[in-house]
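Lab notebook, design round three. We kept the backbone fixed and only want residue identities now. Task for the bench partner: fill in a sequence for the structure below.
Input structure tokens:
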């Protein structure tokens, strides 16, 4: 039976795939000043926004968790932590090639000879918001991105820079990935399939689809870790936990949210290729 309904809190994120100092500190259970101290002593080197604000990605968060463990459990000082981490200063992992989602969406719209007003009406968003997305002044959520790609007769796969040739085997380091607001990372697990779309989702705490969407097909979710709350047609609510498997018809309006304090990791399969 579905769980009883309750309201889902609003989700906020600094920018696609990144956390602010305050968000990172809350996840780790430490102070913002501790993060700055670790940077000052050379343990980490966070990214910077155009406004020079510190930004932390998923890889950096894993490093920070390791540092906290070495400090709190192993009781190591800064030199000891550096030694345990490989006797070197940890830098951010090289960023993936920048994907200009706004420019890609503009290209898709123009390919169909659609004006901004008409495209926004079909996607059920405001023309001003669409213009802001196309000029990279705003970022689309998963729900908005799906509605726009459906309007342009394509799918979210359009944004993964797909290789020309299919591959039956994909190593972890070969995965194509994409970050979307709020706080969601999608890693493509299959390339070249005709009916199956398989992804690894990583959903940050207090983040989700930011709205409902629907399309043709069926969907299957297998929870690897964390918690995910799923709503179907605003009437059925399910809370998924590690080891749970869940399926639903894609034509049901579905939205989802991570209500916990830890990242949710799950395998999400769509068939056919309509997401």
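Proposed sequence:
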């Amino acid at each position: 039976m579905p769980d009883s309904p309750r309201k889902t809190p609003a989700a906020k994120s600094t920018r696609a795939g990144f956390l602010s100092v305050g968000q990172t500190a809350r996840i780790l259970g430490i102070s913002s000043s501790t993060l700055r101290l670790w940077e000052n002593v050379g343990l980490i080197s966070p990214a910077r926004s155009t406004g020079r604000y510190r930004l932390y990605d998923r890889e950096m968060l894993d490093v920070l968790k390791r540092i906290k463990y070495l400090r709190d459990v192993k009781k190591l000082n800064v030199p000891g932590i550096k030694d345990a981490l490989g006797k070197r200063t940890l830098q951010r992992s090289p960023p993936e090639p920048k994907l200009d989602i706004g420019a890609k969406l503009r290209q898709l719209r123009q390919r169909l000879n659609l004006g901004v007003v008409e495209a926004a009406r079909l996607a059920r968003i405001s023309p001003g918001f669409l213009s802001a997305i196309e000029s990279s002044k705003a970022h689309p959520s998963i729900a908005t991105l799906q509605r726009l790609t459906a309007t342009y007769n394509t799918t979210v796969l359009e944004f993964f820079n797909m290789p020309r040739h299919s591959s039956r085997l994909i190593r972890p380091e070969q995965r194509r990935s994409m970050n979307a607001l709020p706080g969601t990372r999608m890693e493509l697990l299959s390339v070249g399939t005709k009916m199956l779309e398989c992804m690894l989702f990583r959903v940050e705490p207090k983040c989700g689809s930011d709205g409902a969407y629907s399309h043709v097909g069926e969907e299957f979710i297998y929870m690897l870790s964390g918690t995910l709350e799923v709503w179907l047609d605003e009437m059925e609510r399910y809370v998924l936990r590690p080891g749970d498997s869940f399926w639903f018809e894609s034509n049901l309006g579905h939205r989802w949210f991570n209500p916990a304090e830890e990242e949710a990791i799950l395998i999400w399969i769509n068939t056919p290729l309509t997401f």
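Keep this in mind before ordering anything: The domain at 1-95 is CATH 1.10.1660.10 (Multidrug-efflux Transporter Regulator; Chain: A; Domain 2).
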